Transposase
Amino acid sequence: MSESPVSGAGEMTVAAAFAGMKRAVPVVFKAGCPDCRGRFELAASALRLAIGATSRTTFYSFTCPECEAVVRKPAGERIVELLTGGGVRTLRLHSTV
């Protein structure tokens, strides 16, 4: 990336445009495994969120890093908001009706 002026923005350089920005801190989520009762932190990339038409079909899942069990837990509105805001990959389930 060069430090030439940004077109249409006067004499602002790329370096000046990004000067106040800080590096993003990775988001981690606290989770627990119902099988081995392990407690741990997971990066957003370790979680998957599925949003369905009802509360029964809206859930998040991950693989336990301690016992490797596949864990699936229900996700209410607040959990969906936190996970999507934290960068968790989301799959929207569509009804076939």
